[in-house]
TrEMBL record:
GO terms for biological process: acetyl-CoA biosynthetic process from acetate. CoA binds at R196, G197, G198, K199, T315, S528. The modification N6-acetyllysine is found at K617. The gene is acsA. ATP binds at G391, E392, P393, D415, T416, W417, W418, Q419, T420, D505, R520, R531. PROSITE patterns: AMP_BINDING. Acetylated. Deacetylation by the SIR2-homolog deacetylase activates the enzyme. It catalyses: acetate + ATP + CoA = acetyl-CoA + AMP + diphosphate. One of its GO terms (cellular component) is cytosol. Its cofactor is Mg(2+). This is Acetyl-coenzyme A synthetase. The lineage of its organism: Bacteria, Pseudomonadati, Pseudomonadota, Gammaproteobacteria, Thiotrichales. Residues 89-474 form the AMP-dependent synthetase/ligase domain.
C-alpha cells in the first residue's frame, strides 16, 4: 500500500464550509438538497431541464436519453447546437469587452483577449480551416504549446463541426504518429516550437518526424509561429497559420451539429499497449462542463479562474477550453512550468492576475511544498477564495499545506474525482455545502450515481474497498472508443454485464458515506497525475534491439505519486558496470522518444529472465515488492530460476 493511501486511511479531520462562503455560493445547502431530490426522482428529467436551461440550442431536443442500444447511450439526440457559439457568440451582447483569456508566456509576457477578440480569432481561423478543405466530421490533430492559439484551434474546429484530437506537446513523434494514424487526421495544427522553463520544445520537428512514415491521411500542416526559430517547412503540405488566415473574413457562421456529433477525441492509456481514442459528444459533454464549473468551482462573473492543466489533457478541455468559456468567465492560461524562473511562479501569477479560483494537481502541490512556506508567503494570495485538485489521490499532508499555506484556512478545497472518459467532475464536494475531509473526494454530484461494488456488482458495506462504478448514464460520458466499439464495451462495461460503467479505480466509502479513491485496479500508472499504461511502456522497451522482455510496475513516490520501475531482460548477457549504466541511459532516452519524457522509467533493473509462474504469468506482485525494496514474503518456490530475484534487487 502506498504511503498516500496509508495516511489517507488514518484521516478523520472535518472542515465544514464557512458561513461566509456558503452565503455567496452558487449552490447552497437547500439548492443541493433540491437538486439531489430531483435527480433521484427523475434522472432523465433532471438532465433534460438542465440542458434546456444551460445550453443555447439551435434546434431544441425532444428526446432526452436514448438507451435503446446500451451501453451506447445517446443524449438530447435530435437537438442541434454549436459548441463554439455557446462558448463565444452568445456572450457578445452582454460581455463582448470582458476578458476571456489572460495569457502569460513562459518568459512572463501577458496578453489578454476579450470575448469579442477571441470570437474574431476563432472565426478567422475557422475560415482558414474551411478554406483548406476541412469539413464537418474531419479529424484535426492539435499538437500545440499551452498558448491561446491552442484554444482558438479547438474552438475553431468546434465552430465548423470538425473533430479535434489534441495531443499533449510532451508526447514524442512516435506517439504523435500513432494518434494521427488512429484518428485518420486530415490536418495537423502545430507551432514551430513551444517555450517551457526557458527551453524550446521543438514541436514542428516532431511533426515532421511523425509524418515521415504514416498512413498518409494528413493533407496539410498548419504552423503557428511562436518561437521564430527556423523550422523545415514541407512544400505543398505545410502552411503558416498567419498565411492560412490571410484574407479570411473575421466572421464564420457556426455550423449547427447534432448533439451526438463528436466534439473531440482524446487519447488515453489503458491496460493494453495501444492508447484509446476516447470519443466525446457535443451536447452532453458541454452540459456537464457547464454545470460542474458552476457547481464545483462556484464560478461568478468577477472570478478569475486558473486551471493549470495543459489542453493536452481532459482537464484542459473541460476547465480551460470549454466549460469556463461557456459560462462567459475569465480564465488564466500559462505556457510555462511551476518552478521557472523561480519556485514562486504559480503564487506570483495568482497575485498578479488576481486569481480567485485555482485548480491544480497534487503532484504540483507536493513539489512546491518542498520549497517551504516562505515562498508563497512573499505573495499576496488574498484574492483566492477556492482551491481545487485533480488527477490522483491527495495525501492529507499536502491537503493541509494547500489549505493553510495557500488558502490561509479561508478557501475550501474541492478534490475532484473524474476521468478522461467521464468528461467532467463526477465525485466532488460542493464548496458551499460539503464538509471536507482531507484526501476524500466526498460525494457524487447530483445526477451521478456512483457506487462501490464487489465482484458480483453488489454495493458493499461502508468501510470496505471495491470497484468504483457509475450505475446510470450521464450526459458527458464517453460515447465509444474511436473506431473500436468492441473495446469500448470490453473495457468499460463487460465486467458487470453492461449494467455499470467501470471506472478502473478502486474506492472505499467511510462510515459517513464519503468516497476515498484507492487507485487503479488495472495496469495503469499515475505518474504526476498522468495516466500511463504499463503495457505501453513495456512495448516501447521491447521495441529496442537490446531488450528481449520487459515488465513495468509502479513504486510510490513522494512527489510524483508513482514512479516507473522497469525490469528488463536484455538480449545477450546482463550488462555490468559502465555498459550497464550506458544501457540504462539509452533505454530511458528510448522510451522518451517512443512515448514522451513523462514515460521515462525512474529505475531500470536487469535480469536474465522475469519471475514467472509455472503457467508463464509474470509475477507482478513480486516485482512490485522488489521495486519498493520490500522483503519478499511471497512463495517463490514456483520460480524456475530464483537467482533472478537477486539480479533484479541490484540497483
Ligand atoms: C485518477 C483526469 C484520486 C483516477 C481528470 C482516475 C483521481 C484517473 C482523482 C483519471 C482524484 C483523477 N482522486 N484519483 N481526485 N482524479 N484520479 O483520465 O485513478 O487523466 O481513474 O483524468 O486519475 O485520469 P485522467
Amino acid at each position: 500500500m502506498s504511503e498516500t493511501i496509508e495516511s489517507i486511511l488514518h484521516e478523520d479531520r472535518v472542515f465544514p464550509p464557512s458561513p461566509e462562503f456558503t452565503a455567496q455560493a452558487n449552490i447552497k445547502p437547500e439548492d443541493y438538497e433540491a437538486l439531489k431530490r430531483k435527480a433521484e426522482a427523475d434522472h432523465v428529467g433532471f438532465w433534460a431541464d438542465l440542458a434546456r436551461e444551460k445550453i443555447t440550442w439551435a434546434k431544441p431536443f425532444t428526446q432526452v436519453l436514448d438507451d435503446s442500444n446500451a451501453p451506447f447511450f445517446k443524449w438530447f439526440t435530435d437537438g442541434e447546437l454549436n459548441v463554439s457559439y455557446n462558448c463565444l457568440d452568445r456572450h457578445l451582447d452582454a460581455k463582448g469587452d470582458k476578458t476571456a483569456i489572460i495569457f502569460e508566456s513562459d518568459d512572463g509576457k501577458v496578453t489578454r483577449y476579450t470575448y469579442k477578440e477571441l470570437t474574431d480569432e476563432v472565426s478567422r481561423f475557422a475560415n482558414a480551416l474551411k478554406n483548406l478543405g476541412v469539413k464537418e466530421g474531419d479529424r484535426v490533430v492539435i499538437y500545440m504549446p499551452m498558448i491561446p492559439q491552442a484554444v482558438i484551434a479547438m474552438q475553431a474546429c468546434a465552430r465548423i463541426g470538425a473533430i479535434h484530437s489534441v495531443v499533449f506537446g510532451g508526447f514524442s513523434a512516435v506517439a504523435l504518429r500513432d494518434r494521427i494514424d488512429d484518428a485518420g487526421a486530415k490536418i495537423v495544427i502545430t507551432a514551430d516550437g513551444g517555450r517551457r522553463g526557458g527551453k524550446t520544445v521543438p514541436l514542428k520537428a516532431a511533426v515532421n518526424e511523425a509524418l515521415e512514415e504514416h498512413c498518409g491521411c494528413v493533407e496539410k500542416v498548419i504552423v503557428y509561429e511562436r518561437t521564430g526559430e527556423e523550422v523545415e517547412m514541407v512544400a505543398g503540405r505545410d502552411i503558416w497559420w498567419h498565411e492560412a488566415e490571410r484574407g479570411m473574413p473575421d466572421y464564420c457562421e457556426p455550423v449547427n451539429v447534432n448533439a451526438e456529433h463528436p466534439l473531440f477525441l482524446l487519447y488515453t492509456s489503458g491496460s493494453t499497449g495501444k492508447p484509446k481514442g476516447v470519443q466525446h459528444s457535443s451536447g452532453g459533454y458541454l452540459l456537464n462542463a457547464i454545470v460542474t464549473n458552476e457547481w464545483v468551482f462556484d464560478l461568478k462573473d468577477d472570478d478569475v479562474f486558473w486551471c493549470t492543466a495543459d489542453v493536452g489533457w481532459i482537464t484542459g478541455h473541460t476547465y480551460v477550453a470549454y466549460g469556463p468559456l461557456a459560462l462567459g468567465k475569465t480564465i488564466v492560461m500559462f505556457e510555462g512550468v511551476p518552478t521557472y524562473p523561480h519556485a514562486g511562479r504559480f503564487w506570483e501569477m495568482c497575485q498578479n492576475h488576481g486569481v480567485t479560483v485555482f485548480y491544480t494537481a497534487p503532484t504540483a502541490i507536493r513539489a512546491l511544498m518542498r520549497f517551504g512556506d516562505e515562498i508563497p508567503s512573499e505573495y499576496d494570495l488574498s484574492k483566492l477564495r477556492l482551491l481545487g485538485t485533480v488527477g490522483e489521490p491527495i495525501n492529507p499532508e499536502a491537503w493541509m499545506w494547500y489549505y493553510t499555506v495557500i488558502g490561509k484556512e479561508r478557501c475550501p478545497i474541492v478534490d475532484t474525482w473524474w476521468q478522461t472518459e467521464t468528461g467532467a467532475h463526477m465525485i466532488a464536494p460542493l464548496p458551499g455545502v460539503t464538509p471536507l475531509k482531507p484526501g476524500s473526494c466526498t460525494f457524487p454530484l447530483p445526477g451521478i450515481d456512483a457506487a462501490v461494488v464487489d465482484e458480483e456488482g453488489n454495493e458493499i458495506p461502508h468501510g470496505n474497498g471495491g470497484y468504483l462504478v457509475i450505475r446510470k448514464p450521464w450526459p458527458s460520458m464517453l460515447r465509444t472508443v474511436w473506431g473500436d466499439d468492441e473495446r469500448y464495451v470490453n473495457t468499460y462495461w463487460a465486467q458487470f454485464n453492461n449494467r455499470y460503467y467501470v471506472a478502473g479505480d478502486s474506492a472505499r466509502r467511510d462510515e459517513d458515506g464519503y468516497f476515498w479513491i484507492m487507485g487503479r485496479v488495472d495496469d495503469v500508472l499515475n505518474v504526476s497525475g498522468h495516466r500511463l499504461g504499463t503495457m505501453e511502456i513495456e512495448s516501447a522497451l521491447v521495441a529496442h534491439e537490446r531488450v528481449a522482455e520487459a515488465a513495468v510496475v509502479g513504486r510510490p513516490d513522494p512527489v510524483k505519486g508513482e514512479a516507473i520501475v522497469a525490469f528488463v531482460v536484455p538480449r545477450g548477457d546482463v550488462p555490468e558496470g559502465a555498459e550497464r549504466e550506458a544501457l540504462i541511459k539509452e533505454l530511458r532516452e528510448w522510451v522518451s522518444k517512443e512515448i514522451g519524457p513523462i514515460a521515462k522509467p525512474d529505475d531500470i533493473r536487469f535480469g536474465s529472465n522475469l519471475p514467472k509462474t509455472r503457467s508463464g504469468k509474470i509475477m507482478r506482485r513480486l516485482l512490485r515488492a522488489i521495486a519498493r525494496g520490500e522483503e519478499i514474503t511471497q512463495d517463490t518456490s514456483t520460480l524456475e530460476n530464483p537467482q533472478i530475484l537477486e539480479q533484479f534487487m541490484q540497483k
